[in-house]
Specification:
The complex is a heterodimer of chains A (272) and B (223). Chain A is α+β, with helices and mostly antiparallel strands. In chain A, 27% of the residues lie in helices and 26% in strands. Chain B has 223 residues and is an alpha+beta fold. The mean pLDDT of chain B is 93. The chains are: A alpha+beta (272), B alpha+beta (223). Chain B: It comes from Cinchona calisaya.
């Protein structure tokens, strides 16, 4: 599609040119490409010395598990991490983008990044895409102003909370938090509670599963506990050891290549 | 004039997977015990396998309310048959009855995906596989339900005879022993559970052979 000079510079955002054609194809019976959604249970809570984030590790494509052990706790800054639910590509892209922007901002200002900065960058990006970037995030971190925990919805709204859950398993996890959360938890109590909330999502929500990832953020220190809990080992391994390949050889034909090509000894080595 | 779409459906899918394998002198019928709706688990301990006759079992996945209604119908019809003929129904006879029952509701189907397993009158294993409206076929092995797309290719790889031209695979029962077949079924379900969110919790295996009927259970992943 050519753009004439009169149109001016190309505007950002989505191009809806193909929507009519897509609708027509769907009416004719075409099944559109599915997105890799993370199903998911993600949580965050504020404790005595900082913030703890938690997530499960299952990525689904409809009813099928696409990744049994993916990472949903994304790095934003040395003192800020973000859990992502929704479309996996969207959560990856948006957190990577804001992470890069913050690195440049740190060079520019010479200061440690603040959680509200990440929050503003994420919410304004998501709002400008009007909810089409399907990323539901739990953002947490500790900066000079103290520990912070926020939730960010795909349309761009945010909440600031002492404890939060997102994703298809959010109700299962929130049930645990609402029963057992209190202010001023110690680190071990907080990790235990987050693990319990994620486990609740893992076992009671079909969109979440596999292992529990945890990230503990305190002033000047972070602890990324990848696969902190692994409550779902494979239940049965066959006694046979391995299954035979069962392929049948139909024909064996050996063609000596030196009859067909010319082999030059020495010569130049191929460049990488 | 666009067609108005219903805002209510009489059906729901409770998920789950069923498998049946026929051997020379046995038949194995297995199903997981998870019943779900959407992203929720309704129960972890629901049997999808019904004992229709002495030597005949049916495993069904799909909409469990329809499955239960179908099971009750077939059990009642079997009772009537026993009163009229003074003997149990043979597995091929039950297979035909199931097909007719399903087709009877061709225009408001039982949302049930069935595999029928049992011993025929010679004591050889037989498996019949169905679609929702009664189309059926006698096979050596089959799987139905949410995990069937994951399990069927593996069973084809392990059980299908290498050259269908030499040995028609349709009538051939597997040469595997009973314990090997059970090992295969357990592996199928453990693997399907890894990748299908609707399969899991527990596996129920029903083994039919000359001695009678035996049940085995195995734990599966609960996430």
């Amino acid at each position: 599609m050519s753009k004439s000079a009169i149109d001016g510079p190309t505007k950002g955002g989505f191009s809806f040119d193909l929507c009519r054609r897509n609708e027509m194809l769907v009416k004719k019976g075409l099944k559109g490409p599915s997105f890799l959604k993370t199903g998911t249970t993600i949580v965050g809570l504020v404790f005595q010395d900082g913030v703890i984030l938690g997530a499960d590790t299952r990525a689904t494509e409809g009813p099928i598990v696409a990744d049994k052990n993916c990472e949903k706790i994304h790095y934003i800054a040395p003192n800020i991490y973000c859990c992502g639910a929704g479309t996996a590509a969207d959560t990856e892209a948006v957190t990577d983008m804001v992470s890069s922007q913050l690195t440049l901002h740190r060079y520019h200002t010479g200061r440690e990044s603040r959680v509200v900065t990440a929050l503003t960058l994420l919410k304004s990006h998501l709002f400008s895409y009007q909810g089409y970037v399907s990323a539901a995030l739990v953002l947490g971190g500790v900066d000079v102003t103290g520990p912070h925990l926020h939730t960010i919805y795909p349309h761009g709204s945010t909440d600031t909370l002492p404890f939060a859950t997102m994703g298809s398993g959010s109700l299962a996890a929130m049930a645990v938090f609402e029963s057992k959360y209190c202010e001023g938890l110690t680190r071990d109590e907080g990790v235990q509670l987050v693990a319990e909330a994620i486990s609740s999502g893992i076992f009671n929500d079909l969109g979440s599963g596999s292992n529990v990832d945890i990230c503990v953020l305190t002033k000047g220190h972070k602890e990324y506990l990848r696969n902190h809990l692994q409550p779902n080992p494979r239940t049965y391994i066959s006694q046979k050891g391995s299954f035979s390949k069962k392929t049948e050889v139909l024909l064996t034909k050996i063609t000596p290549l030196n009859k067909l090509v010319e082999v030059i000894e020495g010569g130049d080595a191929m460049e990488e | 004039m666009t067609k108005e779409h219903a805002n209510w459906s009489p059906y729901d899918n409770n998920g789950g997977t069923c498998v049946a394998i026929a051997g020379a002198e046995y038949c194995v019928v297995a199903a997981d015990t998870r019943m779900s709706s959407g992203y929720n688990i309704l129960t972890r301990d629901y049997s999808k396998i019904a004992q229709l006759a002495d030597k005949c079992s049916m495993a069904s996945s799909g909409f469990q309310a329809d499955v239960r209604a179908l099971q009750k119908h077939l059990e009642a019809r079997h009772l009537i048959y026993q009163h009229q003929h003074n003997k149990q129904m043979s597995t091929p006879a039950m297979a035909q009855l199931l097909s007719n029952t399903l087709y009877y509701k061709r225009f408001f189907p039982y949302y049930a995906f069935n595999v029928l397993g049992g011993l025929d009158s010679q004591g050889k294993g037989c498996v019949f596989t169905y679609d929702a409206v009664g189309s059926y076929e006698r096979v050596g092995y089959s799987s139905q339900g949410s995990g069937s797309t994951l399990i069927m290719p593996f069973l084809d790889n392990q059980l299908k005879s290498p050259s269908p031209l030499l040995l028609p695979a349709k009538d051939a029962v597997t040469p595997l022993s009973e314990s090997e077949a059970i090992d295969l079924v357990k592996t199928c379900f453990a693997s399907a559970t890894e990748r299908d969110i609707y399969t899991g919790d527990k596996l129920e295996i029903v083994i039919l052979n000359a001695e009678g009927i035996r049940r085995e259970y195995m734990e599966l992943r609960k996430d």
